[in-house]
Amino acid sequence: MRQLKKATWLAGGLSLMMVLGVTAGCGGSGSGDSNSGNNSNGNGSQASPAAGASQAPAASTASGKTIKLKMWGGVPAESGPQAVVDAWNKQNPDIQVSYERFVNDDAGNLKLDTALMTGQDADLFVSYSYPRLQKRKDAGLALDLSAYKDYNVDEKMGPDAKLWQIDGKYYGIPTKKNMSFVWLNKDALDAAGLPVPALDWTWDDMKEYAAKLKTDKRWGLLQHEAGYMEQVDSGTAAIGFVKPDGTSNLNNPLAAKGYEVAYEMQKAKSMPTYGEQMTSKMPTDTMFLKGETAMLYAGEFIFRNANNLKDNPRSFKIAFATVPKLSKNADEFKYPAGLGDVVSINAKSANKEAAWKFLKWYADGGMMPMASGGRIPSSKAVNADDAIKLLLSGVDSTYDLDSLKKVVFGTFPTYVSSLEQQVIDLRKEEYEKYLLGKQDLKTTLENMAKRHNDFLKQNKK
Question: How far is CA 413 from CA 160, 202, 331, 370, in A?
Fold first, then answer.
């Protein structure tokens, strides 16, 4: 069993001066991950990779023929990726890149994995979680990058990059800063007489806020499916998924608290039931921007929709809160963050060298057109001021800048979970029974621990 990986997310100089120094420009939306629907970017001209991006290397081939590469990612093409490949293609007529979008869910990732395994056009691809990257590496689909000596991932991306190593090697480059937090309808908070939560608030506080913010036409809280796991893992991450004696710790009291508080909020109707949300496939991002929920537990990818005031008009200001803690004990909590968007080269690609040239350029600023959607490049080669300007350009007045500075660009102790996919799946099977009212919490926790222990015994090294 891999041990939990821990990190400290450094804001990289993203200070208040930088946020307040944003200049007004053309409005538009940005990019995000694939949990949201497609939205027009509308600001391709302002998001030129010239701002902070390294120039693409000159490309040539021995045969003089044009090399064609295809990159697969979860962000809609019009939300930044198309602008990225267009900029590369203009500079590199000998290496032309096209973009293929896959939805970042089970079905979408299966589509990508099938393309990788069956030899379809997939030279580069993005993994959004450690377990999926691990699976692709184990299947021989992600190229070991240690053979390339002309790019130092640790120096460029910082210490958090090591969280994505597998057996001490990189099988992809983590290209952006990851963030998870709570989006707040500040107008709704003001009307309810509630302040923007303190940085150290708890899930009990969240439950109270959700109850006070709900109305007949508005939920108190919505969250993506991944949020159910994160609110539990934020506590378990700090104390370990496996106990010192090598047995499962999935049934720890903090985990129990995480499942219980979600169930209680659903029972109080301050958030939809798990069954209702999953069955109806609630468009949580859109519902928040329409004012149909006062709070949304999500990530930075929502910026692409929130900044797109043409397609998602809103009259309220957005504020931010940290992910709530399950315990007031600081030693029992880690924030879900670190680095993300790990771009790998398909080990089966016939054009690995060309793909490597593109990947280095992409990581060192070529991805800048996606910054307006919250995808802040993690490379030190990128000018952070430029990324922040792209993120807030033209829409800074629609955000509470004080909470944005403290939360979105704060510095917190973080984790990236390396929990195996099989364990994630078995745990989900059990907590779904609880949230659907088919199994009590005690039985749920016992079953999780038993099944996890069986897995640990079978995979003991």
Answer: 11, 16, 10, 26
